Each structure stands twice: as C-alpha cells, then as structure tokens.
Amino acid sequence: MTSNFSTTYEFSHVAPIVSVGALGGSGTRLIAKILSDCGIHMGLDLNEPLDNLLYTLLFKRPEIVATSTEQLFDDFTLFANALSGVKSLSTKNRAYLQTLAEIDRPQHPAEWLKIRVSKLFDDQERNHFCRYPWGWKEPNTHILAPQLLEFFPTMKYVHVVRHGLDMAFSDNQNQMFYWANWLLGDIAPLSPARSLQYWCAVQLRMQNLQRQYPDRIYWLNYDSFCRAPEVGIRGLTEFLQLDGRLLPWSTLLAEVDLPPTTGRYTQRDCSQFRADDVAIVRALGFDVLV
Question: Cα separation of 19 and 12, whole Å?
C-alpha cells in the first residue's frame, strides 16, 4: 500500500508498537492490562480504564478527521517521541500542546486538557528515557487506524469487538457524540438502534482495513476471549510475537472474567433494530438469541 506520508516514523525499526482500539466499553481495559503485564510500556498518563490520555489530548477532537496529512505527521511524531521517550519535546511542541488545551471540547473541558499538558511536561522532565516495547490503548484509536498503520510501518493494531447488541444498550456511548454523524453520514438522535448502526459501521470499516493489513490487525472477539482466556491470550501474544515462555501466565489468566453485562440485550427490546444490522452482528461471529 502506498503511503500518503512523505516519510514514515524514523524510529519505527527499533520500536515495536502496539495500539488498541474499539468502541468504548468493549473491554479494552483488560487488554491494556494484559499488555502491560507482558512488559509493554503503555504510557504514563493513564486513567482508571487505562486510556492513554496523551492520545486523547492529541487526537480525540472532532476536527481530527479533516486534519491534513502534514499535520497528522507532526502529531504522530510528537506522540511517538513523547510516549517512547526517544526525543524530548521541542519548544514548538510545547507551544502547540498548550494551544490544544485552550478550548473546551465535548467531554473534556480545557482545565482537564491543561492537566494533561502539565503532566506530560512533568513526565518529560523526570522520565526521559527510551521505553521498549511500547504502545497505547485508547478506544478512539480506530478512527485514525488507517493513517496510523501507514505512518508506523511496524505498528500492530488490536481491534477489540464486543457483541453489538450488548453494546447498543451500553451506558458508554461517548464515541457516538464525536464520530457517529461523520461515519454514518447523517444526523440522528442517540438511541440503541443508532448505536447498533454505529457499531456495524465501525466493524465493517475495520474489516475492510484488516483485508489491507492482514498481518498487522488483530480482530479480538472479547466475548470469546473471556470464555476461553488461555486460548485468547495465546492468540493475542502470538500475534504480537511475544515469547510465551516468558509470560506471567497465572497473572494474565487471573485478570480475565466474563462481564456480568454479557447478554444484557436478551432482557431488552430488540425489535427496534434493523434486520440488516442484526445480520451483520451474526456475520461477525456473534450468536443472536432474539
């Protein structure tokens, strides 16, 4: 695949990179914890779900889908240098980050964004050293996955997918406010049916991308992963080329548990869903019991 970037990340040949994305509420916290337990540096500024908040600062903003290739090149480079510890932030980088924190965003007020910038500056001063291997987890990563895969030639992307009907009734619909109108190409109020439409659009987009990058995108069915954790962890770590003999298996297996919300859709009104959307859920390997 020909890259739209004039050059790719110059340190990628020495830095194994893994990223994790999904719809919010799909179980990415567990996957990030497993990767961290396997020795992958996932960042310093993390929230309770283990989202990398530097990624949030730089890329979770509605205008990012219209950002030029040149600006994305600069943003990806800044992000990688800061997360890996390969290079210190320049004066220009620092000024740019401060501008990103000046205006409130949906779900993230300016004060919260300024804390992210301050935290990064402090971490740069105290913890400037190269960290390998490295990566990040932030559910919104899937939005920029096509550009990220081009820019980071060694990056592997883990796409976590949870049952679409369960996700339609999730309380976590944060991504809908940012990306649903853009991805679906229309404007409609939030509802479980709209949420399932969005789920389907995201998964079909990622299926198409996986066909372009079959060796670099890992499709992780979260429901199956939790039901057979040893099989799931082995598949994930083999994809990332981690030595299974060195993994803390007892720790990893103890992390996994099937969420109590699994199957919640069976207790809800599913008549509102379009038949085509339900068919996509089935086609992607999920049992539909309605």
Answer: 14
Interatomic CA distance for residues 276 and 109, integer angstroms: 38
Tokens standing for 231? 């099989």
Task: Let me know if 94 is exposed, middle or buried by CB neighbors in 10 A (0-12, 13-18, 19+).
Answer: middle
Q: CA distances (Å), 8 to each of 3, 15, 147, 148, in order?
A: 8, 13, 11, 10
CA nearest 156: which of 224, 225, 213?
213
Torsion sign, CA atoms 124, 141, 147, 18: positive
Where do we find the tokens 């800061």? Answer: 82
Helix (H, G, I), strand (E, B) or coil at 164: helix
Q: Which residue has the higher pLDDT, 15 or 214?
A: 214
- pLDDT band at 2, cuts 50/70/90? very low
